[in-house]
Design brief:
mainly alpha
Length: about 325
């Protein structure tokens, strides 16, 4: 894209349309948005509370899960309240600074979650392949350092996007057919050359999310190699069961994003509102379903949830 001549005028306010083509259905569409957001807030908050208040859960796997739950709350809060404001009150107006702030937290939290899923795969690898060294390797001090590194990686890699967007002049259309702001979706309204934005976004995607997926794949390949050489069937089932919840969450987190990318690349005849609904599904589904998956699949968490919700009330 070549740089265009313009008068220096730049939009500082944008209008988010929500889901174009389905404006008359916005009130109905808001129901699953609101429901999933409430479930995400309650489920992840309960998960964090149970893990932090029960010393028996102060193990690496549960501490990483606590970080994931916190990230899920941030991820859904970045987008869903804005979407509900559009659906209920037609309040789609958003300033440039607020738009950049939203996409900053959206992209950085997504990368943070990807990093947490990677270290959870590493945690399962250590637990299954080196069980006798598990507690000596994954100490609380190391877990804290890992959390800080993932935090710095996610927010550090996305921070340059702020400056890459602030340098642009938005003299084209300021009507955004979406429920939230995202990097290239905003940059394409600039009159400047945005090749730097495109290549930086691609570089960060490869360096973080794609690399995380490859390392997770390697971790589980090593885990499966060890698991299928276990002679005891009970031990085999136990080892596979410990990985079941994490594998479900991985598929839930990366699956919709990959499907959305493929539909954007090859589904040129798919209506725009389908793309937007799929993009929102990537944000809505993981925070809502992650605590449910771990609540059902993890025996310790399931017992404590039942105790907190039902036993104490008697």
């Amino acid at each position: 894209m070549t740089t265009l001549n313009h008068t220096g005028f730049s939009h500082t306010v944008f209008s988010l349309l929500g889901i174009p083509g389905l404006e008359d259905q916005h009130m109905w569409i808001s129901i699953p948005f609101f429901t999933s957001y409430v479930i995400a807030l309650l489920g992840n908050s309960l998960l964090i509370f149970i893990i932090l208040t029960n010393s028996s859960l102060h193990e690496p796997m549960y501490l990483f899960l606590c970080m994931l739950a916190g990230a899920d709350i941030v991820l859904s809060t970045c987008t869903v309240p804005q979407a509900l404001a559009i659906f209920w009150f037609h309040a789609g107006e958003i300033s440039l600074n607020c738009c950049i702030t939203q996409l900053f937290f959206l992209h950085s939290t997504f990368i943070f979650e990807s990093g947490i899923l990677l270290v959870m795969a590493f945690d399962r690898y250590i637990a299954i392949c080196h069980p006798l060294r598990y507690t000596t390797i994954l100490t609380h001090a190391l877990i804290g350092k890992i959390g800080v590194i993932i935090f710095l990686r996610s927010y550090g890699t996305i921070s340059p996007m702020i400056f890459l967007l602030k340098r642009l002049t938005f003299c084209q259309n300021n009507i955004v057919p979406h429920t939230f702001c995202e990097h290239i979706g905003l940059a394409k309204y600039a009159c400047n050359d945005i090749r730097v934005n495109i290549w930086y976004g691609f570089f960060i995607l490869m360096l973080t999310v794609v690399l995380d997926v490859l390392l997770i794949f390697v971790s589980y390949a090593l885990i499966l190699h060890v698991v299928f050489h276990i002679p005891s069937q009970d031990a085999l089932h136990k080892a596979l069961n410990t990985c079941g919840s994490h594998i479900c969450v991985i598929i839930l987190f990366y699956g919709p994003g990959m499907f959305t990318t493929l539909t954007q690349r090859f589904g040129r005849h798919i209506p725009p509102h389908i793309h937007i609904l799929l993009a929102n599904a990537c944000i809505l589904a993981p925070p809502m379903l992650n605590p449910i998956i771990y609540g059902i699949k993890t025996k310790q968490i399931r017992k404590l949830v039942v105790h907190e919700l039902f036993t104490k009330q008697k």
